Design the sequence.
């Protein structure tokens, strides 16, 4: 496959094309991901999340600079569960990151939903694999907002940075969205604004209330516009990476993730098989009609389908 | 099953216990849902979503009054993807709705995550079935926020009301979360505040940009504290219900939903079987070890598992 060859030879255009391929799905995608899989598992993947307007993009911009200064090559995925009504909402963000546009060791890409929120998390996971195989040392995944799709994305990263800003009741919002539990590092951004110290204290209080584990998320103050504190954020990241490696947690988390991926592939394949198999026989329609008329309940229908599948010598 | 008997005899405590049962999961849950299924499919289910602070709870409160005045019995599920840090965040909302606490034909219940956001959508779907079988004419499902879990919940209702308020850039936020597409009715709440007319125009403009279908979501202005406009909201609901029925869309949507439910049951069962079956043989561990060492890729591992399943005379 030419694309794989070009990709592994450091062709940035091939990188862009490969990511488009996983966004669009299809058979080629599987071949591509299969051929590069052996090269994955090297990059450190950092998720950066927080409310819109928290200054995540400029923080990412400054963090890229810090990572580059420390010799790391960087891939950035800006993930936006944009509605079909908008499209290209992250254009502004990409322009903001243009400082690094001429740096060959920085690759920035935004990822949109194209209709399916569930598909976004999957495409992001696959794009991470591509950047990883391409040889990026650090992959930054920036997400807009704090919904389920962001949580899904965050489950595919090694370190999660939650960005909060003074005012706006961010702490309560973040708690509600279940983001607090997944934070490995807190960045209090716009730390030159009033209320930044209070916010930092609020977060620490919240952490005191939660279960204490071996890793207590540090609270780092940053000013993304000036770059103040971004060095501290980088230090916090390297500390977390060291913790992940030394505790064996990195290996464990990645193993679990791979296990989940294999499982999902099997289930997805089975789902398609069941669909086409039962469809052919008209069995699904018949059972469904009886469920709709309330003659049988969904559990009985599911049991019938399972019996049919089990009774078959081969069901594929 | 005593619980089913009591439930179908209008015992409100049994209703509360039945919903706790679906929240907690387990074998009993399946038996319960199986026994009441033939009584479902009668209630109209309305989802009410919007940003925190949009006044959804007081709007629901006033809407309950309007529905009661029109002779409908009402069930309310207040769904909150609360973090483990908080717990009982909706207590305030429940107190606010206490106006109806002595009305036997109103049942209000809040539903929390207890750890799993995906599980919340499922438990909500099941609680809707219980309220439906119990005989509630209208079921209101209020969700906090606009994330994926809210979208999942909204996919299980017949009519979705999106509540927006002047200021705070709600329109853009809502668009981004993909909520705009699922709205059947827009409520501009706090319509006595400055900017309400402009917000209504913004929504209409947004609707002009979108694809036009046979149903154009009406934009209703409400003041939930005084009840102003809640009659209009009720009228909009009845119009949407009439549209759903006459167009055949109600039947179609509900059929699709049942189909999805049966499918999910089958896939879930298969997932558990695969897990235990491969676990016993140590096959999963062996394959996973080879994936982790990058000897094979996840697609190859999934194929091996599928072959194993297919080759078996019976795989159950």
Sequence:
């Amino acid at each position: 496959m030419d694309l794989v060859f070009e990709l592994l030879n450091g062709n940035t255009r091939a990188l862009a094309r490969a990511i488009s391929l996983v966004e669009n799905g299809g058979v080629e995608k599987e071949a591509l991901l299969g051929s590069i899989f052996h090269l994955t598992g090297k990059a450190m993947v950092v998720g950066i999340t927080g409310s819109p307007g928290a200054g995540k993009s400029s923080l990412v911009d400054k963090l890229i600079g810090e990572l580059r200064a420390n010799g790391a090559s960087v891939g950035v995925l800006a993930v936006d569960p944009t509605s079909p009504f908008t499209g290209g909402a992250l254009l502004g963000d990409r322009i903001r990151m243009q400082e690094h546009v001429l740096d060959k060791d920085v690759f920035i890409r935004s990822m949109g939903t194209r209709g399916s929120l569930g598909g976004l998390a999957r495409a992001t996971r696959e794009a991470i694999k591509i950047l990883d195989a391409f040889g990026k040392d650090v992959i930054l995944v920036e997400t807009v907002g704090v919904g389920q799709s962001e949580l899904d994305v965050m489950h595919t990263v090694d370190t999660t940075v939650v960005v909060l800003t003074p005012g706006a009741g961010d702490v309560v919002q973040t708690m509600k969205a279940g983001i607090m539990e997944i934070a490995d590092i807190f960045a209090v951004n716009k730390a030159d604004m009033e209320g930044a110290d209070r916010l930092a204290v609020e977060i620490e209080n919240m952490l005191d209330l939660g279960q204490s584990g071996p890793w207590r998320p540090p609270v780092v103050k940053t000013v993304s516009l000036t770059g103040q504190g971004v060095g501290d954020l980088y230090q916090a990241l390297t500390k977390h990476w060291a913790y992940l490696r030394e505790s064996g947690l990195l290996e464990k988390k990645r193993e679990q993730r791979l296990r989940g991926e294999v499982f999902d592939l099997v289930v997805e394949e089975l789902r398609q098989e069941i669909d086409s198999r039962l469809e052919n026989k008209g069995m699904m329609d018949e059972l469904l009609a009886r469920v709709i008329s309330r003659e049988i309940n969904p559990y009985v229908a599911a049991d019938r389908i399972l019996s049919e599948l089990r009774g078959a010598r081969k069901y594929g």
Notes: Chain A has two domains: 37-247, 259-311. Chain A touches chain B through 76 residues (CB under 8 Å). DSSP finds 13 helices and seven strands in chain A. The mean pLDDT of chain A is 82.
